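Suppose you are handed only these lines of text.
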Amino acid sequence: MGGKFITFEGPEGSGKTSVIKAVHDYLEQEGYDIVTTREPGGSDIAEAIRTILLSKENTEMDARTEALLFAASRAQHLHEKVLPALEAGKIILCDRFLDSSLAYQGHARQLGIEDVYQINKFGIDSHMPDLTIFIDVPPEVGLARVFDNTGRKIDRLDLETVEFHQRVYDGYKILAKRFEDRFVVIDGTNDVETVIEDTIMVIRTYL
Ligand code: TYD
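From them, the structure of the protein bound to thymidine-5'-diphosphate can be written out as follows.
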């Protein structure tokens, strides 16, 4: 048995990044061997794909190209970074994974959750997260946070319509039901300290 693969999902402005950092520090203090990483990106090749995906200049990108690039970035990152760390018995904390593609490209871009799942299956084989923390923040709350946070870089997907972000959220709700054995839903409308405490509690119990 190797390590554990824990993914973090949520719409824009869910506070994922702060939560992951706090969980990382907490688990490290507890003596766990932790690798924190993110998608799209997390390795040189995958980060290069990320730059193409998130560039505000690439407005003409076709939805299928977008889905394939996310899947390509995921395959590279998984094989180059995640699987070796898992085999070494580490705990991987990954900011976004497959479910982001299912919610954003599958549901919100309306390519279909099933079709997007199929192209990703080719990339990731049978490797699924052991646990997925979904930080639940409705789009109106999340987007207000994104645009209030002046230090945050706004990317191509942040600039999508409110309807798009509503569909992302609806997509996550569908996934939380479909994958209920690995999804844990955390109320992300609370203040960040509470969200962090709730998440740490879930992960501690899991481990
Ligand atoms: P990211 O830097 O992860 O931003 P956030 O802080 O919102 O998590 O940006 C990644 C963007 O790409 C985000 O808008 C979600 C989107 N995305 C997809 O559409 N599909 C995917 O498969 C992934 C991994 C991300």
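What can we learn from it? The chain has a mean pLDDT of 94. The domain at 4-206 is CATH 3.40.50.300 (Rossmann fold).
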